[in-house]
Amino acid sequence: MSYRLSSSSSITISIVNTECSALFKLQIPPNSNQIPNFFFFNRVWCCSKNNKNLEMEGHDLSKFTVINETHSLNHKISAIHNAGPSKLQVIADFDATLTRYWINGHRGQSSHGLLKQGNPEYDAKRQALFEYYHPLEFSPTIPLEEKTKLMEEWWGKTHGLLIEGGLTYDAIKNSVGSSNIAFRDGVVELFEFLEERDVPVLIFSAGLADIIEEVLRQKVHRSFKNIKIVSNQMLFDNSGHLVSFKGKLIHSLNKNEHALDMAAPLHDQMGGIDGPAEDNASVKQRTNVLLLGDHVGDLGMSDGLNYENRISVGFLNDNIEKNLESYRNAFDIVYMNDTAMWGVVKLAAQLCSMEA
Fold it and tell me: 60, 95, 170, 303: which one is catalytic?
């Protein structure tokens, strides 16, 4: 894999071996057309200038973290640490960010993809919509305004089919119970750490809040007072049948803090939590952000927030050779190969540390 550099100045790429906490830096000279080869071994990183293609061989890439600009990252860490936990919020995508991309060698399901209505006819209709609209969502030739209208159309039709097809909450519970979805190792510990320090976590999803809540209920078996879900919320009648959706429609192109008023505290639905949740206005006053996502587009989740400092963490789960350059340029930190959440737990501890 080769990289072309347009910058006239030198750059530094830092590679962190999370297994041995070693940091290696590679200085790229100005006007260089390619980054020299990296060869990864168990606990050693070395650079070869003799080969023209970048190869990553003989090592589990999940043990490595790519940091693009260490000076900038350290400055952000220091600023957020000095401001304290009261100024911090965490914004996280759900699918393939909090959840695992691979499970036992198979692609993990998304919160939307796992849903089975219990009505094969309507499941097939929703799949047909997916096959038509999904390529349009990622088309590079469709203008944003037109694509936004297409996404509203897709989501609206899908929600209509869920109502028309008689979706029940029991179907949601059964779908989650039989699904292939799981949280990354360390996610629960991250939630617990942030809850203890009253740091709010906003989970953004263009899917369905009720499914995310049910995944948390069945997979984690507890609730968190600091978690809010910014997603599409369902309204059910007394018999458990879906009758409508609440509030503004949230789709893949508008899941950001402009939609924060749609956020629902997790404990409202799940119970078992005492004490008031932090209101949305006070969340917006938290101007330091730790953002977690698995797509470059997830960086837009902080749109609408006038933040002072943002540390962005990207999870590059697949197609590493094809996507590493764009992820490295977009995110402050990149974790590769569907790795666990422990690096983020360590970062959160550093941000919230009481030590000077």
Answer: 95
Q: For residue 259, what are its two tokens? A: 């939609």
Q: How many domains does the chain have?
A: 1
Query: Which 3 state secondary structure label does DSSP give 163?
Result: helix
Active-site residue, selected from the candidate residues 60, 93, 210, 294: 93
User: 194: domain range?
Assistant: 62-103+182-233+246-268+280-352
Q: What is the mean pLDDT of residues 120-133?
A: 94
pLDDT tens per residue, range 272-328: 444 445 677 778 889 999 999 998 889 999 988 889 999 999 999 988 888 899 999
Query: Mean of the pLDDT values across residues 198-217?
Result: 94
Q: Look at strands 201-208 and 227-236 and give their pairing.
A: parallel
Residue 215 has pLDDT above 60, yes or no: yes
Identify the CA nearest to 152 among candidates 93, 232, 260, 209: 232
Q: How many Cα atoms within 13 Å fall on the side-chain side of residue 81?
A: 15
Residue 129 lies in a domain: no
Confirm whether 95 is a catalytic residue: yes
Q: Is 38 within the bounds of a domain?
A: no
93 is an active site residue: yes
CATH of the domain at 84: 3.40.50.1000
CA dist., res. 335 & res. 227, Å (int): 23
